[in-house]
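Comment thread on ticket #2218

A.B. wrote:
> Attaching the input chain for the structure job we discussed in standup.
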Amino acid sequence: MTVVTSSPDVDEWFSFPHAQRALKKRSFLHILGVDLGGGKGKKTAVATLRVDPRDGAATVTEIVPRSGTLPLYDATLLAHLRGFGDGTLICINAPLTLPPCLRCLVPVCPGQESCVDANVIEMRRLTSAAGSAVGRDGRRGKPQITPYTQRVTEVHLLHDRGLVPREAMGQGTGPLTARAAHLTRALADRFRLNENLIEVSPRATLTALGFARPYKKQIRERQTRAEVLEALAPGLRFGPGVWREVCVQNDHLFDAVICAYTGHLWARDGWMERDPVNTALRRDGWIWVPPDDRQSAAVTDTAERAAAER
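C.D. wrote:
> Ran it. Output below, let me know if you need it in another format.
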């Protein structure tokens, strides 16, 4: 069987070459963290970071919406994001791409086991390497992957990193994915995926940084958020008029700050994708989290060997 790594007959995202471009280490004047809520809700929040070129510290210079101001519906949110110049990075806490099944152009699905889409093949490989399903779910035939709700990045983070992000089309996530798709297209003239527009997960970032304690819907959630911001304080500051306590009290503003801080680390440290040779992973979308040091060394070695072979 021939494996299709990329084909317009299989995957409609083949027509977006910007999604396949390699990541370059960059610096940005402004980094915007967006904790995206529903299009008709009031929970969307945005935090703005500026990076001090002298010591590399990031400063929160603005958080919106403020108490008493209008919610960030689409028109207001787009106007706010577009109000920043070209040296801007946007980091969104929502899926920016669709699962492979929802992009597939094959008229009749052959089934997961026979699918030759590169992303589905990678998902099968990841679950196979992690071991077969056991227990009651395994006996009942519960699927280990669902490519119509999951992407490679979510399966990778689960099995290779032990992180559990929301599925792109999981329960309660579909409306956010739809809104994110709209925003991505509305900003497409200036913001390109994995160049100055990235997908992040605040919870995954904090877990990867060693903050495993839940910071939402817990009795001591505010104390936990305060401790996180205090621990990040050497590299994350709050500017005049922007009170850290406000972010401690509001979990959406807190998430927006962590989204922006993730983007700051992404740009500062030049994070690399898990497999820089396989463009299918970039086309499928990627949730950026702090890399595992051992994994980063292995990726660097692989990239250097690939370059030497070319």
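A.B. wrote:
> Thanks. Noting for the ticket: The first helix runs from residue 74 to 82.
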